[in-house]
Amino acid sequence: MKAQQLKIALRNCGFIDPEEIQDYIANEGYLALASSLSGSRQAVIETIKKSGLRGRGGGGFATGLKWEFAAKPEADRKFVVCNADEGDPGAFMDRAVLEGDPHSVLEAMAICGYAIGADEGYIYIRAEYPLAIKRLRIAIAQAEEAGLLGENILNSGFSFKIKLKYGAGAFVCGEETALIKSMEGHRGEPVSKPPFPATKGYRGKPTNVNNVETFANVPAIINRGADWFAAIGTEKSKGTKVFALAGKVKKVGLVEVPMGTTLRQLIYEIGGGILGDKQFQAVQTGGPSGGCLTVKHLDTPIDYESLIAAGSMMGSGGMIVMDEDDCMVAVAQFYLDFTMEESCGKCVPCREGNKALYNILHKITHGEGTMADIDRLKELAVVIKSTSLCGLGQTAPNPVLSTINNFYDDYVQHIVDKKCRAKRCRALLEYRVVEENCIGCGACKRACPADAITGELKQKHFIDQEKCIKCGACHQKCKFNAIAID
Amino acid sequence: MDKVKNTEELKVLQSTLRKAAEEAASSKVVIKIAMATCSIASGSKPVLDFFKEEMPRQPLEFIIKSTGCTGLCHSEPTVEVTLPGKAPVMFGHVDVKKAAAIVNDYIKGGKPVEGTVEVCRS
Ligand SMILES: Cc1cc2nc3c(=O)[nH]c(=O)nc-3n(C[C@H](O)[C@H](O)[C@H](O)COP(=O)(O)O)c2cc1C
Ligand code: SF4
Ligand code: SF4
Ligand code: SF4
Ligand code: FES
User: Fold this and answer.
1) Deepest in the core among A95, A150, A430, A447, taking most CB within 10 A?
2) What is the value of pTM for the model shown?
3) Domain holding A248: CATH number?
4) Interface contact A31, partner B, CB < 8 A
């Protein structure tokens, strides 16, 4: 049977009008909050624990346990924070949930507030999400007006308010301790854990931080029961996961599949296969913290442990499919470029180490690498991973390590043959005149910015490799298929 | 909206709204237009405007709703049409021209229009 999607977090997305609270209420909206409020705080935590729900923001920590940690300490104030920073390149799962079903997140935050004993919640959202912000504002106002947020909700005596805090779009601010610092008006720099936010978080008070998608699952779990949820997925990974399926796949989009679905099913059955029926080469999961998996991993079931065992990770749900035309060394360089830019600079291994990794990759993609550089990359990567303060630095070398492990030949080809099979690394390309096709029109010569082409009109032309800067202009201009790229 | 005072009231409200939606669906044409960032970027706004302008001219009862993301990035802008008593049909890559065909051929004529998309509804 063909693999199917199963929509839990996205259950209302695309089906209801997110700007009408009535639509949400008609679809069981706020019933989970009502039933939670009629029972004990502990009962809510038990349900979430029993469901097996784990954090969808990347780490996969057990949500019920996290709530329990935040519920325990005695404190005059506690806070619920929703992490809507979503900074992975290519990820848009959380944006879709917030734009399509904002009330499910608000309801879940209120349930969490009740469970841990907080009366205030914050959604930390990047300012680049104007539509999500607008819909959240509308949703909060409507829920307050309906008495489903605010003072004395449903006459239960429980009050809960939700406010928005805006992030400037720094990737590191998605890390929970940096996020809290940023909420407090400080620089968004991570601090070491423990203490965890559950004991000492926002303004020094116990704070529960969860991801948007994690929250979106909560009302469904309360309404349908922990057993229903726990029956979906694998032994250790329950429920579903939303993925932003992108890259060289036919049906690019947002999909939600039960845990345990294989990468092959996701890419070929749900994603429709590789664009242009080309050859699958790799799939990147886990964003800048993850890795690239190959053909031999296609039957890996999607769950937290299996993806780590395969050398990548679940991450927040970015999934980029690559075909034969993608260069894996360049892909590693792309992610390193991203993490290097986004490093907050607080600790040396991440700040300097990732730059060093990047520089070596740059050398390799420019034909200046040596075989010793591969060992150097591995050595550095291990040090950076074990000595960085936060998750950004600890995982930044993963794309490099996984591509060395899975695409070693590509590295060797760049270093030894000075060639890029995928013809992506420009410095390694060689532009050459195909003599039998050249009619000597001179178009290439006129276009060349480096004066690298010689030849008289109506004579065969010639490219001087020493002078050529590989801009590609000649290839574009030649109408006779007489410029080849090797 | 008035304040919902307790759980009982919420349950009553829920079933009233549910019934109203079901009744509407059984007697009216329901048109849902995805209006997430991705849909808007691929051109859903003029499509929404078209339906809002065109439908009142038709001798039909209808509801137009804007929804969030359908997840069908590959086919945005998407429009889902449910004729009374029929299963919903999702149309992909809808521009104003195709929207006009949807109104004339599918909604009024009951004839198929090319370019439908499979949707997961579980
Ligand atoms: C560099 C870095 C960036 C992160 N970005 C996000 C993010 O954008 N959204 C998110 O929910 N979690 C992000 N996290 C994970 C959070 O620190 C935290 O674990 C998560 O919000 C907890 O929620 P969960 O248990 O529901 O997953 C990031 C972590 C690191 C190290
Ligand atoms: S690991 Fe990188 S991002 Fe994290 S605290 Fe250190 S320098 Fe900042
Ligand atoms: S543009 Fe092509 S055909 Fe004309 S001179 Fe250059 S290589 Fe020859
Ligand atoms: S690639 Fe650019 S620099 Fe090289 S020969 Fe062609 S036009 Fe000149
Ligand atoms: S992001 Fe929602 S359809 Fe593309």
Assistant:
1) A95
2) 0.93
3) 3.10.20.600
4) yes
